[in-house]
Amino acid sequence: MTQHSLFSLARKLSIVIILSFTAAQAGDFSFVPSGLLFRPLVANAFEPRVGFVVQSGENKLDLDIGNSIDLIQYATDSLAFTFGTDFFTYTLLRGENDFHFPVDASDYLFGFNVNMFRLHHSGTMAARLRVSHISAHFVDGHYNNTIGQWKDNHPPQVYSREFVELTLAFEPSLLKGSTRAYVGGAYLFHVDPRGLSRISGVVGAEYHLELTHNVNPYIAYQATYMKIIDAETRHDMQAGIKVGAWGGHGVKFFAVYFNGYNIHGEYYDQKEKYTGFGMNVDF
Predict the structure, then answer these.
(1) pTM above 0.85, yes or no
(2) Which of 81, 153, 246, 272 has its Cα between 20 and 30 A from that of 71?
(3) Do 119 and 78 touch, CB atoms closer than 8 A?
């Protein structure tokens, strides 16, 4: 699947959704609106982030640098949708003496998204459709120059996937916007190495307590069902505090728990389990 065909598929999907909503009711278009219509999922590994996680006792550090931007928005009084783009990197570093952090592996994600947000008397409903590409690579920090071989006797392997992902989220009005629950699924229409399962599913929830407008303790959990070698549920949990408005700019300080198949493509068939702590900047 080429970048051109990836864009073509995203464009066709967005046109179908746009036409279905514009036919229903009149609204206004805007370009590059502020913020994101579909708020990133806190416990999902593949979201736009700027921050890091230090794995406890593992001498490993995850560095995330990425952004999503809504490019076009159509909105009415109770309904809005956007078309946007994603560009992320997920990087695994290993700590060494004298504050050296050689890069072991790095994964790249880019693609397009269509988002919908609807106000209802029972709460707010949101949906996100993403068409994305991910590729994975080892970097110089995974190579031992002294003996001239790849570390851990693990040479690079081809890992690439293109997928369509749909996520549906709901925030009940009875809980006054403090809780969001969601379900979703992804279909890989191309993947290397071949033979991997093409379907995965997620379910998750988030809760935050607004002590003040700019102090928000929170907890989030996501279960991801997939089949790599065995059928497996990956568990991602994050708990911490956000300094700043919950839906706006701010900084998160948090602890994490991870148990399941590695998120980095070069280690896609390896399971890991760790706790850690980190920081993200929400922008």
Answers:
(1) yes
(2) 246
(3) yes
